[in-house]
Amino acid sequence: MCIALSALAEATVEAKPTIVALSPQSVEILFKVGAGEQIIGTVDYADYPQAAQLIPRLGRYDQLDMETLMLLQPQLLVFAQQDTSAEIRQQLETLGVPIIDTSVSTIDQVADQMALLGAKTGHSAQGAKVAAEFRQQLAQLRQQYQGKAPLSVFYQVWPEPLTTTSDGWMNQILTDCGGHNVFADAHSDYPQVSMEQVLVKSPQVILKPKYEGATNQERVSWTLWPELPAVANGQVITLDGDVVHRTGPRVVDGMKQICQVMDDARNAYAAMDNTP
């Protein structure tokens, strides 16, 4: 009987594979579900939480030390394929190591990734718990901000060439926060646009994230175009891009940041309308 119970206990213990996590958001999710100590290699920009800074570095999204990665002999590869170069993806696929893709197209899918990674790394209960908490936070934000008077917004993803977003999880955040993305009807997910096009769209708010790898966001000097409502009314806002752009646990904090910025702008415009 004791032998049978022991065998059953061993059978129900979740496997905890060693992991190489090759995108910052993947690292953040793994730590959130309790699998941070299983990460044996990661990329340069994976700097959160603080414990992640101690993980050995293997390169970045477009250049990896494949020899060192193979010597680590990971049992699981976790990364966002949409943020990884095609050449690196092909090399990783030849290793024969299981891969989990943490790419998302909607913010709701972040919770799904938490639950999945919890289950695949030996932390099912914690994964389910943090996924439920994320969904609750998301629902609360939507309840608070959806339905408010929309403001037109331009989101500056990159300064040169001037690049914005039109679809996917980022556009969803803008919409959920009561924003109308002025390039939501573009034909590509990240369209390159001209300043003339932005002037025609005449956004009321311009959002400008600063994040690792995009320290040159100030190359667009918006003050040169005072005819834009966002510029004329002081609504060119800098965001913490690392929180907003990493589709991990903190992206809901990034959404909260954007929603608050949009609400502040909404109140400012309302106050101007009510000024005699």
UniProtKB/TrEMBL annotation:
Tell me which residues make up the Fe/B12 periplasmic-binding domain.
18-266
Q: Which InterPro entries match?
A: ABC_Transporter_SBP (IPR050902), ABC_transptr_periplasmic_BD (IPR002491), Vit_B12_bind_prot (IPR054828)
User: Which Gene Ontology terms describe the biological processes this protein takes part in?
Assistant: cellular response to iron ion
Q: Which Pfam families match?
A: Peripla_BP_2 (PF01497)
Name the domain of life this protein comes from.
Bacteria
Q: Which UniProt keywords apply?
A: Signal
- Key word Isomerase present in the record? no
Answer yes or no on keyword Signal: yes
User: What is the designated name of this protein?
Assistant: Cobalamin-binding protein
Q: Source organism lineage?
A: Bacteria, Pseudomonadati, Pseudomonadota, Gammaproteobacteria, Alteromonadales
